[in-house]
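> example.struct
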């Protein structure tokens, strides 16, 4: 399997993963095994599909990072998010099937636990679609990935709950799934203003957290409802929760909210409402540098680096010496120096199999050799080392908790 930019895909290549219908992610556009044609590729490009997963027998080992059942469960969550937001937009008092949400999220969690090798964020399961639905789906998946990685931390942070229940993440996923449901109750002019500028300072837009909380309060688990209210609260005491609610800080913010806050910010950096998509490595670097780093729980930021590779396995990259490679393994301790395998220039690849070159572990190579381009971006100046100060922040964080 190989993730390749749509513009570099060639007629005759066969899809290794399905392509969902842009603007309607619950509908299948192209199935696994579909042979691409020049006409199809032109249409996909016009629809805004930026990348495709195509099959290459010599890279079949990369299939272990993608579990079809996990993708199906992700799609089910995305479908329910879409149906929910459409129902609320048409009727604010719509009855929402919360028990069904729990069942769907439980299935996704079970898949992630059963297939830990595939529990990494490789990007959206679809490229297009309405931003609110795409964003909510990504935040849900990211939050669950981090929550599972933080199992021990959840138990410590939720001492008043039985340890077995404290580590459960379904209510975390439910809070993430509905975290922006309040935006559907805002005036259209307010929503469009945010989508145009990405400016979070508008008091009217800031009320979406309180609007969403009032909608779900008493209908879902309190921890999930709290996440809807507090997902814009920051660890350093900045942020907001609506005019009628106090601003919290540090561990007075529930740990589920702290996780969704990180997932929400990361996804907004990666896919900003007011600009084109940005490289994952840039979004991660922004999260761990000033001024953002102090806004977030350092334990959760650390988990983000564990589950989100700056360069996802299966991605085609160009190195500083102009050779091309495919990323085959993520090293969380050296995030921007993964294990790679050299391949030919994608621009001259044919529809057949790839003649693979040697495997290189960038963590063991000279610093003069690095990833310079990925997904159409020059990333030469964006590579970073895992910050040691995160562990220092973790060691010195406040001892009190909510």
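> example.seq
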């Amino acid at each position: 399997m190989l993730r390749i930019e749509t513009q570099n895909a060639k007629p005759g290549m066969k899809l290794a993963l399905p392509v969902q219908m842009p603007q309607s992610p619950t509908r299948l556009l192209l199935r696994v095994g579909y042979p691409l044609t020049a006409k199809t590729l032109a249409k996909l490009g016009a629809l805004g599909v930026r990348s495709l997963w195509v099959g290459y027998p010599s890279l079949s080992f990369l299939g272990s990072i993608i579990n079809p059942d996990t993708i199906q469960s992700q799609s089910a969550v995305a479908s329910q998010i879409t149906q929910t937001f459409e129902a609320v937009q048409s009727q604010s008092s719509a009855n929402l099937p919360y028990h069904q949400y729990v069942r769907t999220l439980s299935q996704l969690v079970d898949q992630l636990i059963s297939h830990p090798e595939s529990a990494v964020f490789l990007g959206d399961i679809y490229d297009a679609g309405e931003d609110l639905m795409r964003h909510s789906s990504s935040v849900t998946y990211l939050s669950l990935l981090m929550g599972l990685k933080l199992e021990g931390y959840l138990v410590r942070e939720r001492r008043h709950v039985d340890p077995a229940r404290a580590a459960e993440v379904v209510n975390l996923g439910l809070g993430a799934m509905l975290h922006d449901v309040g935006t559907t109750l805002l005036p259209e002019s307010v929503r469009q203003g945010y989508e145009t500028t990405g400016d979070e300072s508008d008091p009217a837009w800031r009320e979406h957290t309180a609007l969403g909380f009032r909608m779900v309060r008493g209908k879902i688990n309190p921890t999930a409802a709290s996440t809807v209210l507090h997902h814009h609260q920051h660890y350093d005491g900045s942020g907001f929760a609506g005019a009628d609610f106090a601003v919290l800080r540090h561990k007075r913010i529930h740990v589920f909210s702290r996780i969704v806050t990180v997932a929400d910010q990361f996804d907004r950096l990666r896919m900003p409402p007011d600009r084109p998509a940005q490289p994952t490595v840039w979004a991660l670097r922004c999260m761990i540098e000033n001024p953002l780093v102090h806004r977030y729980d350092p334990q959760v930021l650390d988990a983000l680096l564990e589950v989100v590779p700056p360069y996802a396995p299966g991605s085609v990259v160009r190195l500083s010496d102009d050779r091309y490679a495919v990323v085959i393994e993520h090293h969380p301790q050296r995030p921007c120096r993964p294990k790679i395998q050299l391949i030919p220039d994608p621009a001259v690849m044919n529809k057949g199999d790839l003649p693979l070159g040697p495997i290189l572990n960038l963590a063991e190579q000279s610093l003069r050799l690095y990833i310079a381009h990925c997904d159409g971006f020059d990333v030469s100046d964006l590579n970073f080392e895992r910050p040691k100060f995160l562990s220092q922040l973790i060691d010195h964080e406040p001892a009190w908790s909510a």
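> remarks
The chain has a mean pLDDT of 87.
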